[in-house]
TrEMBL record:
This is Family 43 glycosylhydrolase. InterPro entries: FA58C, Galactose-bd-like_sf, GH43_arabinanases, Glyco_hydro_43, Glyco_hydro_beta-prop_sf. It comes from Paraflavisolibacter caeni. One of its GO terms (biological process) is carbohydrate metabolic process. One of its GO terms (molecular function) is hydrolase activity, hydrolyzing O-glycosyl compounds. Residues 350-482 form the F5/8 type C domain. The active site is at D56, E224. It comes from the Bacteria. Keywords: Glycosidase, Hydrolase. The record marks D177 as: Important for catalytic activity, responsible for pKa modulation of the active site Glu and correct orientation of both the proton donor and substrate. Signal peptide: none annotated. Pathway: Glycan metabolism; L-arabinan degradation. Belongs to the glycosyl hydrolase 43 family.
Length: 482
């Protein structure tokens, strides 16, 4: 049977798009546009501890100040290099800063995984991995400047005789990621990659070779980033498994000695990828305690932006009555202030704009097909009080700037800018305006300074502030205005 399709008259065709239909379509397009903007403004990285890329963090409190020694990431060359040695400090665990380098002779070398600073013999010692080898270093203060504890304070590739471990192998002694623990009796121990452990001699710069053991753990496979601490008479040994998005932490316990023997609970994995919360690969970090309390915290790097573009996060570490560790409730939110410290009142930024914005970055996965992240770089991220997000200018932007709109003229007392890749240094100009068109200088510095934040003390009245980046990576993690 032949079927005939009758064409609609022209008048009937027009009624297919009535004013109501057009309004509905416009509403849909507007909704999609808003959702698109919202998607671009999402921050999948949460509130990282530090306004920079760091990994392998060792955190401790010394005389009321939190110190964070870490690997400086974000230099975009993978494992071929690292950033220089800086120590971030904070009084409250929220506002962090650094100024200059704490280990000058190590600048320009691959500087990884510094340990916590231990006090002994009237000095402070750290044990970073430099160019792939562990070295002991010493200073009169946890702020440095540190220098090699043995021999001449000079590094050469691939290694020197000042290494912590000694070997007759021409390739040098094997081992990275030193973790130091001092027991109640004053005996110091060192733990390192692939489950090795030993006593340190009283000089704190040589190893008691007769005591070296390899810890037999419940789980096999490559392991790095050991963590060791003692709580209520129990020694805890934490070791990593896997890497990238597959990073995990497992642990064992001993009531006998820092060198074991260790028992391994049935539920021995305390940190692993949380797909629901989009926390990927919790890896090399530390455990630290707030002195005088039973409050323990677990710091870890998160896979984040792939390769050596990691950030560090902190969650509470909790225990069962029998001393076993509960699986960590992983979030990217941070733990907030650990000490109450008075701070200046911040002025709210109601709007912002920038000379340009870098295009969205789709982050590729390494091992996990469920890993999906996109980073956006809106100027609003410089004012969201979250260290995981940042404004970045477009690569072709050679005269980058960012403007903060305070909504109305305000009395401004200060500005603190946390630039992207601060360990490479920045120079900037700070300007103010009443109308956003005519600008006057009020701060900044023409020379490159290696610090974070960059602070300007002001006494002006303005609605707008503008930072022009003269030297350094054109981006801002956070900008605080007071």
């Amino acid at each position: 049977m032949k079927t005939t399709i009758k064409a609609l008259p022209f008048s009937e065709k027009r009624t297919a798009f009535t004013p109501v239909t057009i309004k509905a379509l416009l509403h849909c397009f507007l909704l999609l546009f808003v959702l698109s903007l919202k998607a671009q403004r999402e921050n999948p990285f949460g509130n990282a501890l530090i306004p920079d890329m760091i990994a392998d963090a060792s955190i401790q409190e010394i005389n009321g100040t939190f110190y964070c020694y870490a690997t400086t990431d974000g230099y975009d060359q993978g494992l071929a290099t690292s950033g220089p040695p800086v120590v971030w400090k904070s009084k409250d665990f929220v506002h962090w800063s650094f100024a200059g380098f704490y280990f000058p002779s190590a600048v320009g070398h691959k500087y990884w995984a510094p340990s916590k600073a231990i006090a002994a013999n009237g000095k402070y010692y750290i044990y970073p991995t430099v160019n792939g080898f562990m070295y002991p270093a010493v200073a009169g203060s946890p702020d440095g400047p540190f220098q090699l504890a043995k021999g001449v304070d000079t590094f050469s590739r691939s290694f020197t005789s000042a290494t912590l471990l000694q070997s007759k192998d021409p390739k040098g002694p094997a081992g990275i990621d030193a973790e130091i623990f001092i027991d109640d009796d004053g005996q110091a121990y060192v733990f390192w990659q692939r489950r090795w452990a030993a006593k340190l001699n009283p000089d704190k710069v040589t190893v008691d070779t007769a005591s070296i053991i390899k810890i037999a753990t419940k789980r096999e496979g490559y392991s790095e980033g050991p963590i060791f601490f003692k709580r209520k008479g129990i020694y805890y040994y934490l070791y990593t498994l896997g890497g990238d998005e597959k990073y995990q932490y497992a642990y064992g316990m001993s009531k006998t000695s820092p060198l074991g023997p260790f028992d391994f609970p049935k539920n021995d994995i305390i940190a692993t990828t949380n797909y629901e919360r989009q926390v990927f690969g919790p890896g090399h970090g530390c455990v630290f305690n707030v002195p005088g309390t039973d409050d323990y915290y677990f710091a870890y790097l998160e896979f984040g932006r792939r390769s050596t573009n990691r950030q560090t996060y902190v969650n509470k570490l909790e225990f069962n009555e029998d001393g076993t560790i509960r699986p960590v409730d992983l979030t990217l939110n941070g733990v907030g202030a650990l000490h109450a410290v008075p701070h200046k009142k911040r002025i709210q930024v109601v709007n912002s704009k920038a000379s340009s914005v870098r295009s969205d970055l789709i982050i590729k996965r390494n091992q996990d097909s469920l890993f999906q992240r996109t980073e956006s770089f809106s100027s609003q991220f410089a004012f969201d009080a979250a260290n995981g997000s940042r404004w970045m200018a477009a690569p072709e932007d050679t005269a980058s700037w960012i403007v903060a709109d305070l909504g109305k003229a305000r009395h401004i007392k200060g500005s603190e800018v946390y630039f992207v890749r601060p360990t490479a240094g920045h120079a900037h100009v700070l300007e103010y305006s009443a109308n956003g068109k005519t600008w006057k200088p009020c701060g900044g510095h023409p020379q490159v300074m290696i610090q974070s934040p960059h602070i300007d003390n002001l006494n002006i009245k303005a609605r707008y502030l503008r930072v022009r980046i003269v030297r350094g990576v054109p981006g801002v993690w956070e900008w605080h205005i007071y």
